Every structure is written in structure tokens, then in C-alpha cells.
Q: What sequence folds into this?
């Protein structure tokens, strides 16, 4: 059985990636981060998803609170009802987040004898983050081939991106087909009792469920 590390935020995309890794026959270690984000609601969902699949779940503490982002500084408001989501890089972008998290995931791979990382990056229906693009992922693959023991020994860590070119509707459909517990997930940038329904992440999610023909089972304001 192949060992895999899956970056799990607790959201729709990463949970679908967990489901895909399990379906691919991998023994999964889920990796989440407590990085100073504006709420802990997504981590609660990540824990529930890991429990649902009965997989190992590691939470790494990082302090990115000094990084300028609406997701790490509460004084920066989360944009609501933007007209063109993905047309620019929004204030919810956390500088170098995927670079940092993939680096930790690579180190964990070499520690648990995993040969691949699953990550839910997407370059179709997304908020405009530069570290979600295929070009970034390919550059990171090249870096891992040069900068890790596994790479130097000729079997570099793979980065698997199951939803890279999927629409949000495609992701919902895939999650449903794989039996992913989408009802346990959390995508909202805000951390209330219910999802706001107004931030970029909520709007992309809601539209994805509508286009896929499913009802989103989480509660919204």
C-alpha cells in the first residue's frame, strides 16, 4: 500500500482530495495547520473528516500572524460579494502559504515513508491565488527532486493535484461519487456558527453545488 500525506484544511477541496487518496488505495496521513488563521472552525472540520476516515491526523503549529492577509489579521476585513472572483489576487491571499505547507508536507513524507502529497489546488474556480497554478506546482516538483533525500536518491516525492483543472461543480460531483463527507466540511473565511455565504470561498462553493445539482448541507446565514 502506498503511503500519502494529504493537506487537509477541512474544506470542500481538501476533503475531496482525502477521499481520492483513499479511493486510490493510499494509506493516508492527513496534515493540517494551526497557523494563526482568523478562526478555528476549519480545523474542527478537518478533525471530523480525519475521524470519519479513521486516518492519522497531524496538526502542525505555525505562526503566520505577522503575514499580511485577511485570513491572519482580523483588522483586515474579508471581502464580500466581489463581482469578479479570481480576477485579481485578493487580501485573503496568505503570502507563501502553499510554499510553506508543501515544505512541511515533504518533510513529513520523508518521516512516514510516504512518496506522495495530495493537495487541493485548483486553477479554474478559485480566488486568484498564485500558488494554486499548475506552473507553481510543477516548479515545486522540480524543487523537491533537488532538495530532498528522496529526490537525490532517484525517487522524488510526487505532488498529486486531483482537482487542478476541475470546476467547483466537478469537485462537488467527484466528492459525492467518492462518498466524501462534504456535510462535515467548512469553506467560509469567517468563523461564525454558520457560513457567511458572501465571501469568495462561500460563493464559489454555493455556485459549485448549484451547478452540480446538489444541495449544500452546511448551514448559511
A:
Amino acid at each position: 500500500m502506498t503511503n500519502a500525506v494529504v493537506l487537509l484544511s477541512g474544506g470542500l477541496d481538501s476533503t475531496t482530495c482525502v477521499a481520492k487518496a483513499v479511493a486510490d488505495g493510499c494509506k493516508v496521513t492527513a496534515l493540517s495547520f494551526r497557523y494563526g488563521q482568523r478562526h478555528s472552525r476549519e480545523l474542527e472540520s478537518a478533525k471530523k473528516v480525519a475521524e470519519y476516515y479513521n486516518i492519522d491526523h497531524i496538526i502542525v503549529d505555525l505562526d503566520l500572524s505577522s503575514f499580511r492577509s485577511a485570513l491572519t489579521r482580523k483588522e483586515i476585513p474579508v471581502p464580500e460579494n466581489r463581482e469578479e472572483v479570481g480576477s485579481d489576487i485578493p487580501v485573503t491571499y496568505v503570502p507563501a502559504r502553499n510554499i510553506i505547507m508543501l515544505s512541511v508536507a515533504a518533510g513529513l513524507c520523508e518521516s512516514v515513508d510516504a512518496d506522495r502529497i495530495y493537495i487541493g489546488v485548483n486553477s479554474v474556480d478559485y480566488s486568484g491565488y498564485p500558488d494554486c497554478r499548475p506552473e507553481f506546482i510543477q516548479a515545486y516538483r522540480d524543487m523537491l527532486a533537488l532538495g530532498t533525500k528522496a529526490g537525490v536518491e532517484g525517487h522524488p516525492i510526487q505532488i498529486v493535484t486531483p482537482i487542478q483543472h476541475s470546476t467547483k461543480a466537478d469537485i462537488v460531483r467527484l466528492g459525492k461519487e467518492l462518498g466524501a463527507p462534504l456535510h462535515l466540511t467548512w469553506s467560509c473565511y469567517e468563523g461564525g456558527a454558520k457560513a457567511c455565504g458572501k465571501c469568495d470561498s462561500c460563493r464559489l462553493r454555493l455556485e459549485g453545488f448549484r451547478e452540480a445539482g446538489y444541495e449544500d448541507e452546511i448551514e448559511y446565514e
Summary: The mean pLDDT is 93. The chain has seven helices and five strands. The radius of gyration is 17 Å.
